[in-house]
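Write out the bound-state structure for 2-phosphoglycolic acid.
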Amino acid sequence: MDNQPVAPLSSHNFSAKPTTKVKPWVVANWKMNPGTQSDCQQLLNDIVSKPPAKHCNVMLAPNFLYLSTAKQILVQTNIQLAAQNLCSEHDSNGAFTGEISANQLVDFGVNFVIVGHSERRQYYGETNEVLRQKIQNAFAKNLSVIFCIGETHEQYLATQTHQVIEKQLSILTEFASQIPLPSHDKTPFNPKLLIAYEPVWAIGTGLTPSLDEIENVHNYISELLSTFEIYAPILYGGSVNEKNAKEIAKLLLVDGALVGGASLKADSFYQIINAFEQK
Ligand code: PGA
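---
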């Protein structure tokens, strides 16, 4: 990890931080889980049986097959839905076997999509160019993006975290004018972009960076975004669980969490939500 203080990136005056408190985001990334439709229904029912969150935004990202069940069960709640993927080649419809478009997701009632998750980069070879196209398609249809970034363990050990993140974030520069800034009145802020900093070596491993390291990287991301004239809430992801959520939630620059494994148990997920409710 680069422990050096964040270098001044440029002489910019951009300051678009919201004046009112950002409501944190707690997002469940269920990946290719649970294993069956009935387990998914059970998990959804367990989640909606918990008291609703008041001070944070809660979002679930089931796989495409389970979106419809989730939509039905979540209908009376304020829990939002996200998709885990979208088509990079086209934003509407056409001959793209196996794909789902931004337009189809919006038409269905999904407001957010995860882009750039390390599992997609790693197992499906998603390059920066593919991710750029996905973001372009999402924004073209007014679908908000949860953009995941983070370094591998090798890069972490080689203290390349800042460089890796800078490269991953650089594809956002061309979208700056499409990302609305928070207004300075009391209107609720509906971000078009959330960033999720997820060190690859922390995903599903039970390992997490130290709190100082998380702060350092979030600070770096926030500085970098401001040089692009972009403001986006920055979530932390990677082995967030019911035990470490409180400490992570207390960090000033952490605006929420992207949660994998621990979101598959309603009790753990609820405790993580509670940690961010108290932020
Ligand atoms: P994890 O996954 O919480 O199981 O580490 C996080 C993610 O991949 O988004």
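---
The first helix runs from residue 37 to 48.
The pocket of 2-phosphoglycolic acid is lined by residues 29, 198, 203-204, 237-240, 258-262 (CB under 6 Å).
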